[in-house]
Amino acid sequence: MKGLSLIVVCLLVLAVVALFSMGTGRYPVSFADLLTWITTGQCRDENLPIILVNIRLPRLVGAIAAGGALAMSGAAYQGMFRNPMVSPDILGVSSGAGFGAALAILLSLPVAGIQVFSFAGGITAVLISVSISKTIGRNHDSVLVLVLSGIIISSLFGALLSMLKYIADPDDKLPAITYWLMGSLANIRMSDLMVILPMLFVGSIPLMLVSWRLNVLSFGEDEARSLGVHTGWMRALVILCATLMSASIISITGIIGWVGLMVPHLARFAAGPNHRLLLPTSFLFGAIFMLLVDTLARSVVSVEIPIGIITAILGAPFFIWFLKKSSQKSW
Amino acid sequence: MVMESNISLDLSHTDLGYSGRVVLRDVSLTIQTGEIVCLLGPNGVGKTTLFKTILGFIKPLAGMITIGGTDISRFSPKDFARLVAYVPQLHHSPFPYTVRDVVLFGRTVHLDLFASPGKKDRDIADSCLELLKITHLAERAFSELSGGERQMVIIARALTQEARFIILDEPTSNLDYGNQVRIIRKIGELRKQSVGILMATHTPDHAFMIGSKVVVIDQGSLFCCGKPDTTLTPDTLRQIYGVEVQVFDTPHNGICSRKVCAPVMESDSDNFFQHKTIR
């Protein structure tokens, strides 16, 4: 089985990267100590378990969840919109969710409130983008119109966000919103993860279950319908699940761009276009990618670099490369 | 394929079009399983509207469309897709699915909501590839095939769907001459599978080659309908296409096998009319 072995290889790589990430940081942990602690629970250094469990483990789980969820929802969006160019950022989910979360921060809401607001913002943004492209795009290149609608909605929510920042208290709320927007895994606590992880299950399991139909949906509305797929319901389900996944991640990490666009492409190289394999592969690739980037972000220089900055720096050249490639060959 | 009792797809006094704009009026038409119906008509006359309506994408403005006596609006998308398969004109997928996967998509309608195809489905897909003699394409990327190969794959997908009717929208458009003939031959062979076929075409010869019936639409309604040999006369062709066409019988092993069309060119029109007057 090609598919099974790919998944197993990904899991092994993820495990190795996770070990590496656990051992890396300001407080050096030797590989031997780490292995002893994992296998026996014993440790020579009494600080070590505290650092590993309270600081590095939530961050590790957070990175895996964030990378995986953003990549998997990106793959689902790309399949459903039959468009390899879309991602949570491009459809406006990120900026919508960003606006929602900033509003919640401004109103001093708890974590659950930030999540509800960022989900509402994300789903509103994507629904507006899709409906604009449906109204305008009848006789135009639907891919182009969808991407342009996403850009319009992103900049609209961007403006609303600036408005919030402008009225936010500059000593307290404004820095909180600004750092949050840069995207970081530094402030993830176990309690956040407890709220997020169930959301990711709720979002990803239906996507996995309907992954075969997602393939059929990527042939377009009329063909999918003539193949017996209830396209309206299926689209609603995929949008809801993918937006739930990306918006809940955004609500705890801030905006981490490009992962949802880049990683599904890399996964498609390895797994092929069939969503039954592509979705889990995207999740694992995203998890590995994010864990590597986050480990870099907190270890390369003495001051931590916000992770959203690194993904954007990596993402821009990737997108240029991809545009060049797709102009040469049809996907 | 299991032989089931014959059923028919019927349009009775149907008005078709979009809200407020009638494209075709009072269309009545019957397609039996085991029958190949060729649909002819000039560009923009409403063939696509007719197909979209039969496929349930748009609702008829008046009248009924039934399959086996049941109104098509009463079928769920899934039940409907078990009865009618569709071979669209343009196939585009942005992702490089293999041919085998694309053919397997035809099985979706026989799967539960959360299921993916099993061994039985793969066997059916393989036998459909075999039937169309395209097994060698199975592992290729669909998006990299030529137009003729893609058309074959989509027909294989429609067969895999095991529907009672297959609707083909100009299956030979954009194909070279050899591929056109091959596709038409294959469609002709499908009659044996006891499926009913409705095929739009711009080539009257296709109707002579495989059509059990021809339906001509023009001027916002059904123009005429019947056996190709008696319906597609030079007169009819002139009226719908506005060009002079001669229709001949081909001698084949001394027997007239079927009719062919030959458009009259400017250069031979003098001869043509002279010939006519002498007679």
Walk me through what this model shows:
The complex is a heterodimer of chains A (331) and B (279). Chain A contains 14 helices and no strands. Chain A has helices at 2-23, 31-40, 47-80, 93-106, 111-136, 142-167, 173-182, 190-209, 211-217, 221-226, 231-253, 259-271, 275-299, 307-328. Chain A is globular and about 65 Å long. Chain A has one domain: ABC transporter involved in vitamin B12 uptake, BtuC (Orthogonal Bundle), CATH 1.10.3470. In chain A, helix 3 runs parallel beside helix 8 and helix 3 (47-80) crosses helix 12. With 279 residues, chain B is an alpha/beta fold. Chain B folds into two domains: 8-230, Rossmann fold (3-Layer(aba) Sandwich); 243-279, no CATH class. Chain B has helices at 47-54, 77-83, 99-104, 119-131, 147-160, 177-189, 204-210, 228-231, 234-241, 266-278, and strands at residues 8-18, 21-32, 36-40, 62-67, 70-71, 84-87, 165-169, 196-200, 213-218, 221-226, 245-252, 255-263. The interface between A and B is medium-sized, with 30 and 36 residues.
Number of E-type strands of chain B: 12
Shape of chain B: globular
Task: Give the averaged pLDDT of chain A, no decimals.
Answer: 87
- Counting H and I runs of at least 4 residues, what is the number of helices of chain B? 10
Low-confidence stretches of chain A: none
The most extensive contact between chains is: A-B, 30 and 36 residues
CATH superfamily of chain A: ABC transporter involved in vitamin B12 uptake, BtuC
The protein's oligomeric status is heterodimer
CATH homologous superfamily (4th level) name of the largest domain in chain B: P-loop containing nucleotide triphosphate hydrolases
Order of helices and strands of chain B: EEEHEEHEHHHEHEHEEHHEEH
Helix vs. strand class of chain A:
mainly alpha
Determine the CATH topology of the largest domain in chain B.
Rossmann fold
Percent strand of chain A: under 5%
- The total number of structural domains of chain B is 2
Give the end-to-end Cα distance of chain B, rounded to a whole number of Å. 52 Å
* CATH architecture title of chain A: Orthogonal Bundle
Can you list the strand order of the major beta sheet of chain B? 6-7-8-3-9-10
Largest sheet descriptor of chain B: 6 strands, mixed
Q: How many separate domains of chain A?
A: 1
